[in-house]
């Protein structure tokens, strides 16, 4: 019995040989550090310094003696380090101590104005998000005559600068007798926000309608569908608008300045003007003003520390700059 040996296939060197990568020409090495990257880092560093330096200067001034600031205004470090400015802001310092460190001697009820800011920002944020959500649902899901025309009018409101609406709103608030009230500060902005309505409507249009239609077939009403189905699915954009709306209301200055002249309703941003006063022998209390500004910004800094990632995502989500 003879066995037939089959010839083993010859593996050619051409098949096993992996193609060689093209070599970089001599004299040109691939470097991770390029001129473009250096320019980019330089630009980022400049923007970072320009952004952070005002906060550092605020801290430096707040921890300085107000009289000593005049002697050495260009110092990068606190001049005659002292906590006196914060003591004046918190009402701990006496009038004699305040005048001795260059303060005006005027006192400020920081907790009272802080409470006013919390009430103003919270109610306005809740109201504007609530009414915007209802309006957005009406534009996105309900079928009614003139809906598209009305939405076009809403979009046109986005093109109107906010400064143009201040005077008509002021006249309306005055005629309604709402000056020096929280209602006068909150209502003109809380009842209508074209951007919020547009933003939420566009998001609701992207939601699936099958779930809502199934709920309607089972007998649920529109209000129940809105609060039990649509709102949970829109929680992300609602939280986004809530955070941005609260920050905007907290930092609002010009509108409360127009409609309030009584300290009982004035927010903290207006109360800071107390520290711009000065005694006849002294310059304005810049140290006290910076300390009060830091105290006013502290809630926003805490908000950023807690919700920093969501705030950054919110800015990117809404396309705000």
Automatic annotation (TrEMBL):
Belongs to the binding-protein-dependent transport system permease family. One of its GO terms (cellular component) is plasma membrane. GO terms for biological process: transmembrane transport. It is found in: Cell membrane. The keyword Transmembrane applies. The keyword ATP-binding does not apply. Residues 114-307 form the ABC transmembrane type-1 domain. This is Multiple sugar transport system permease protein. Its main location: membrane. It is a multi-pass membrane protein. InterPro entries: MetI-like, MetI-like_sf. Keywords: Cell membrane, Membrane, Sugar transport, Transmembrane, Transmembrane helix, Transport.
